[in-house]
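Quick one, probably user error.
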């Protein structure tokens, strides 16, 4: 899902002045720091029709308010659907884990891995040396 709207700012700082614009209308002098509310709504709608979610990476600069809004909203939506038994949610990667913890949604996920690249390789079906050593 590519963003249709984005939150931009001209300074990389918490509470920096910001605006929401269409994804194709990002000003040349601005940074994209988060997905916009329209995009978050589309992501949430996809979650409700999905049966399984594989999540790797936050949606924005989740470490700073207000650029954590999209990640927090998506994380809470996924956790709620998981707790309701409507979604299997699997997440991996250090930043992902930090973002889900910050959003207060980590406990609602089905499974969380702190391995980033290794998590994705495992999902691809690749042999991981550490796992292979355990099964030998």
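Nope, works fine. Designed sequence:
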């Amino acid at each position: 899902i590519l963003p249709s709207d984005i939150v931009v700012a001209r300074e990389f700082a918490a509470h920096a002045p910001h605006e929401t614009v269409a994804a194709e209308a990002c000003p040349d002098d601005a940074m994209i720091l988060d997905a916009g509310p329209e995009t978050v709504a589309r992501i949430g709608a996809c979650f409700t029709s999905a049966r399984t979610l594989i999540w790797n990476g936050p949606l924005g600069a989740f470490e700073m308010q207000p650029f954590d809004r999209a990640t927090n909203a998506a994380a809470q939506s996924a956790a709620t659907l998981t707790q309701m038994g409507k979604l299997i949610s699997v997440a991996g990667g250090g930043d992902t884990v930090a973002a889900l913890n910050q959003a207060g949604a980590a406990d609602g996920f089905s499974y969380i891995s702190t391995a980033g690249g290794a998590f994705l390789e495992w999902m691809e079906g690749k042999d991981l040396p550490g796992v292979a050593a355990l099964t030998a």
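The two ends are 40 Å apart (CA to CA).
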